[in-house]
Amino acid sequence: MEGGGVDHLAEERQKSRFDVDEMKIVWAGSRHAFEVSDRVARLVASDPAFRKDNRNLLSRKELFKNTLRKAAYAWKRIMELRLTEEEAAKLRFFIDEPAYTDLHWGMFVPAIKGQGTEEQQQKWLPLAYKMQIIGCYAQTELGHGSNVQGLETTATFDPQTDEFIINSPTLTSSKWWPGGLGKVSTHAVAYARLIVNGQDHGVHGFIVQLRSLDDHMPLPGITVGDIGMKFGSGAYNTMDNGVLRFDHVRIPRNQMLMRVLQVTREGKVVQSDVPRQLIYGTMVYVRQTIVSDASSALSRAVCIATRYSAVRRQFGSQKGGPETQVIDYKTQQSRLFPLLASAYAFRFVGEWLKWLYTDVTQRLQANDFSTLPEAHACTAGLKSLTTSATADAIEECRKLCGGHGYLTSSGLPELFAVYIPACTYEGDNTVLLLQVARFLMKTVSQLGSGKQPVGSTAYMSRAEHLMQCRCSAQRVEDWLKPDVVLEAFEARALRMSVACAQNLSKFSNPEEGFAELSADLAEAAIAHCQLIVVSKFVEKLQQDIPGQGVKQQLQTLCFVYSLHLLHKHQGDFLSTGCITPKQASLANEQLRSLYSQVRPNAIALVDAFNYTDHYLGSVLGRYDGNVYPTLYEDAWKDPLNDSVVPDGYHEYLRPVLKQQLRNARL
Ligand SMILES: CCCCCCCC/C=C\CCCCCCCC(=O)SCCNC(=O)CCNC(=O)[C@H](O)C(C)(C)COP(=O)(O)OP(=O)(O)OC[C@H]1O[C@@H](n2cnc3c(N)ncnc32)[C@H](O)[C@@H]1OP(=O)(O)O
Ligand SMILES: Cc1cc2nc3c(=O)[nH]c(=O)nc-3n(C[C@H](O)[C@H](O)[C@H](O)COP(=O)(O)OP(=O)(O)OC[C@H]3O[C@@H](n4cnc5c(N)ncnc54)[C@H](O)[C@@H]3O)c2cc1C
């Protein structure tokens, strides 16, 4: 996307055998999405106000103030340029700095939309859209995050005043972690146990004002602050994750989000026909967006590692010629190309998940709740799978860049630090896999009952075949047949689920059995989620994809993704009898040959992400590949190099050196 200067990767770019511009559109999702993304990315990159290369040098206070400045300036630009919601979201994305706005737009607004009544939406949403109030999502407490039903904050109805009294009865009931809470939010959707007439009705959401809209001071009864520094420098420390305590704070009754459950003026609790699980709806929404985010973070790391692998040369010079580009080593390819393929795979499964979410939302509006469990299982499982894979992949990309990957200017350390909490927030990844496993066990247990599994578990309706089928691959080329690959993944996933179900049935107490077998259950959930990713990639390839060579590249990547998983999880495939050792070795042979096909296209495949150098934030990943002079010049800009002799020389170095001199003379 960058222009000008010598292109050290030009030769690489000439090697590619497909239309990169068309691939850019496939990656973006549509021509429209590409144009918006391209325009907004350039806007951010060309505005010095969005500079981010100094983040690691700032103290926490400076860093945070700088984030506030950027967010305010971004809001000003959004207004001035009359950006659409889509463009504004892209602007925040390319600014590339976690901020309170993520939670305001990403959770506070969706929580009101999903759980508020029409009337509540009409009252609160316009204020939130204009940012006249800023909100956060205050669910997690010091004592409980995963166990939402274990939250301790209370909201007790007072029929005399028609109010709820929000209270933090214990230290562990303090809200702890919500982003945007510590220093910014004026309001929160706070989750608390609803108590009416002494009866506990479980956890619900309440809109609570936290700070004065005049002077930003906390309102009476509210104690609020930041929870302190987090992993890495810069990184997620731009966010004010907060602590919050309520001391009998009173809010009007109509500030309980009442789409699921209503409390009347008389103190009657009325359950609507909307299922209770809708209270968790905001999490379903965010988990879905996190899958798309995973493909962004992963593609970014892969872009850096791929470009640098083509620039970096090590060993293998023949007769004084150039040394080997490290990207030509098969080991480098076998570590890097599966990550490249995963970036595309996660992109497409993210697109599908967005469709699924839109579909379930439309059904919910029409009071059809039948697909909610499926939406929960898919968002939870794919969030877990893609974030775990991406976190590991960013670290792998750092190692793929050798020593220079460890420099902050590679962009990889900060990306890693900012990304890894995705494995924890919005649901710990193991806890989420166990949710998928519960869903799978339920589906398996109903197989004999005549109830047809649908959606992501539709393959289970072919249980009889899948439990005993044998893989038909006999030659290396057979592993390029989508049906052969899909069937192997389906059989593996089903057999692992069925094995768990059989083992569970040996326990007289199912909950005890579930706890005892939870490690196996999590593995079965992973197998199921990997199948979803593979099958959505295969489905994508059934679409009409224009552009010379584009579809063929995607086919190659689809098989790289599937066959590398098959290789990595050979144990599962072999032990469930889905494939034979001979077939596993044929698959691996095919994989090696696919790497050779990816090789000449690798640079173009990462160019298709269309990232600006500003967004990448990496000397190693520069578009023009001009790595060494930039690294060299950048080093001199470090504040440590401001003086030739360091501060502290006279106090701490000289005395040591002089001491040694005296000793030497003795
Ligand atoms: C270099 C710069 C780069 C910048 C990049 C910037 C990018 C920014 C990107 C992104 C911004 C994101 C910023 C971070 C945001 C983080 C926010 C948060 O973390 S908010 C807190 C999340 N908290 C959790 O997720 C708790 C996890 N726990 C739970 O979800 C539940 O409690 C769970 C699933 C563990 C259930 O616990 P149980 O066992 O006590 O369940 P019971 O409450 O009794 O409900 C059980 C029934 O409900 C269903 N269920 C559970 N969850 C459901 C759901 N979500 N939807 C539908 N059904 C659900 C289950 O399937 C089950 O159904 P049946 O009874 O079997 O039919
Ligand atoms: C950067 C960041 C931002 C966040 N932002 C917000 C926010 O905006 N709003 C908000 O409300 N919260 C937020 N959170 C909180 C986050 O949602 C929780 O930390 C998360 O849900 C995990 O819960 P926990 O901390 O209780 O982990 P725990 O549940 O205590 O996990 C600890 C360990 O126990 C294991 N474990 C727990 N339960 C089980 C089980 N049943 N079976 C097997 N193993 C189990 C886990 O796998 C994990 O290994 C944020 C967290 C972070 C790190």
Automatic annotation (TrEMBL):
<dbReference type="InterPro" id="IPR012258">
    <property type="entry name" value="Acyl-CoA_oxidase"/>
</dbReference>
<dbReference type="InterPro" id="IPR036250">
    <property type="entry name" value="AcylCo_DH-like_C"/>
</dbReference>
<keyword id="KW-0560">Oxidoreductase</keyword>
<dbReference type="GO" id="GO:0033540">
    <property type="term" value="P:fatty acid beta-oxidation using acyl-CoA oxidase"/>
</dbReference>
<dbReference type="InterPro" id="IPR002655">
    <property type="entry name" value="Acyl-CoA_oxidase_C"/>
</dbReference>
<comment type="similarity">
    <text>Belongs to the acyl-CoA oxidase family.</text>
</comment>
<dbReference type="GO" id="GO:0055088">
    <property type="term" value="P:lipid homeostasis"/>
</dbReference>
<keyword id="KW-0443">Lipid metabolism</keyword>
<dbReference type="InterPro" id="IPR046373">
    <property type="entry name" value="Acyl-CoA_Oxase/DH_mid-dom_sf"/>
</dbReference>
<dbReference type="Pfam" id="PF22924">
    <property type="entry name" value="ACOX_C_alpha1"/>
</dbReference>
<dbReference type="GO" id="GO:0001676">
    <property type="term" value="P:long-chain fatty acid metabolic process"/>
</dbReference>
<feature type="binding site">
    <location>
        <position position="179"/>
    </location>
    <ligand>
        <name>FAD</name>
    </ligand>
</feature>
<keyword id="KW-0285">Flavoprotein</keyword>
<dbReference type="InterPro" id="IPR055060">
    <property type="entry name" value="ACOX_C_alpha1"/>
</dbReference>
<feature type="binding site">
    <location>
        <position position="140"/>
    </location>
    <ligand>
        <name>FAD</name>
    </ligand>
</feature>
<dbReference type="InterPro" id="IPR029320">
    <property type="entry name" value="Acyl-CoA_ox_N"/>
</dbReference>
<protein>
    <recommendedName>
        <fullName>Acyl-coenzyme A oxidase</fullName>
    </recommendedName>
</protein>
<dbReference type="InterPro" id="IPR009100">
    <property type="entry name" value="AcylCoA_DH/oxidase_NM_dom_sf"/>
</dbReference>
<dbReference type="GO" id="GO:0071949">
    <property type="term" value="F:FAD binding"/>
</dbReference>
<keyword id="KW-0276">Fatty acid metabolism</keyword>
<dbReference type="GO" id="GO:0005504">
    <property type="term" value="F:fatty acid binding"/>
</dbReference>
<dbReference type="GO" id="GO:0003997">
    <property type="term" value="F:acyl-CoA oxidase activity"/>
</dbReference>
<feature type="domain" description="Acyl-CoA oxidase C-alpha1">
    <location>
        <begin position="280"/>
        <end position="441"/>
    </location>
</feature>
<feature type="active site" description="Proton acceptor">
    <location>
        <position position="426"/>
    </location>
</feature>
<dbReference type="Pfam" id="PF14749">
    <property type="entry name" value="Acyl-CoA_ox_N"/>
</dbReference>
<dbReference type="GO" id="GO:0005777">
    <property type="term" value="C:peroxisome"/>
</dbReference>
<dbReference type="Pfam" id="PF01756">
    <property type="entry name" value="ACOX"/>
</dbReference>
<feature type="domain" description="Acyl-coenzyme A oxidase N-terminal">
    <location>
        <begin position="19"/>
        <end position="134"/>
    </location>
</feature>
<dbReference type="InterPro" id="IPR037069">
    <property type="entry name" value="AcylCoA_DH/ox_N_sf"/>
</dbReference>
<keyword id="KW-0576">Peroxisome</keyword>
<keyword id="KW-0274">FAD</keyword>
<feature type="domain" description="Acyl-CoA oxidase C-terminal">
    <location>
        <begin position="482"/>
        <end position="658"/>
    </location>
</feature>
